[in-house]
Amino acid sequence: MERLIALIELLKNVQLFESLNDEQLHHIYSIANKQSFSPGTVLFQENDHGSAFYILLKGSVKIYTRSTSGEEKVLSLIQAGESFGELSLLDGRPRSASAQTLESTTLLVIAGKAFNDLLRDQFEITRQIMAELCRRLRDTNQHVYDLTFVDSRTRVLKNVILLANRHGSRSGNIITIKVALNFNELAQMAGVTKQALSQVLRDLEDRSILKFGLNEYKLDLARLNG
């Protein structure tokens, strides 16, 4: 019972379920399968048939695509409290990207039929998913604009601030962002070369705007705005 209560509390931190009551959250738990994965596990690949919806309870997952030459492009970083994998369940088409764990990760996995039944029965969840899809579309539009019109330095700065806003924890003027992405993956997200990323990050570090630790960095808002 204690484990169930703890899991329900975790579900309350999932943005998708923030407006649901305990009875509704118990229903979510009853149709989901809790699974743990080691770092580097591929959950699904681009063009796979979509069979499940994922809710991230612990850890992190990267969403990415590969070109025909094998070059990887990281599209987004999924952290605890976020969800993914709904697109192919909604339109019935193959996965548009791949998903891989970056660290030890715990997920709730909901099979496709149960997910669609949930959308039919819980309008608030449907509305939240629609809002999330709209946000991703806006992000894609902005990313295309940035790649077309914005220089590399500005793209790196925008990506740093975006990660801070979405995944950071703030204490005063300092935002700590825990990111399991490696250097190459960070460059892919920003749409810049590794050399360009290195130059910008080195400059931010020299100016004490960014401080780096193990799988995390600290952003000083006072110095950034100074």
From TrEMBL:
Which keywords accompany this UniProt record? Activator
Q: Which InterPro entries match?
A: cNMP-bd_CS, cNMP-bd_dom, cNMP-bd_dom_sf, Env_Response_Regulators, RmlC-like_jellyroll, WH-like_DNA-bd_sf, WH_DNA-bd_sf
What GO terms are given for molecular function? DNA-binding transcription factor activity
Record bears the keyword Phosphoprotein:
no
Q: Which domain of life is it from?
A: Bacteria
Gene3D superfamilies xref list: Jelly Rolls (2.60.120.10), Winged helix-like DNA-binding domain superfamily/Winged helix DNA-binding domain (1.10.10.10)
Q: Which residues form the Cyclic nucleotide-binding domain?
A: 16-136
Instruction: List the PROSITE patterns hit by this protein, alphabetically.
Output: CNMP_BINDING_2, CNMP_BINDING_3
List the SUPFAM superfamilies. cAMP-binding domain-like, Winged helix' DNA-binding domain
Q: Name one GO cellular component term.
A: cytosol
Q: What is this protein called?
A: Crp/Fnr family transcriptional regulator
